[in-house]
Design goal:
alpha+beta; 2 helices; 4 strands; 42% helix; flat; binds zinc ion; Sigma-G_inhibitor_Gin; Inhibitor of sigma-G Gin
Length: 60
């Protein structure tokens, strides 16, 4: 089956296009959002928090 989707850790939706980091998936949309999100944007801390979960799981 080519239609292989993963649950994005940022938006929590099933997506098939995106990147996987340490077995955690981030969809293409969220990846693009993160890239263009400014440090002063109110969503930035949320992204950092979600990303920290990845590193935390990796080191667990
Ligand atoms: Zn997403």
């Amino acid at each position: 089956m080519e239609d292989h989707s993963h649950r994005c850790i940022i938006c929590n939706r099933e997506q098939s296009v995106g990147i996987a980091i340490c077995n955690q998936f981030i969809c293409h949309t969220c990846e693009q959002e993160m890239v263009k999100t400014d440090v002063h944007d109110e969503r930035y801390p949320f992204y950092i928090k979600q990303m920290r979960q990845i590193w935390f799981k990796k080191n667990a």
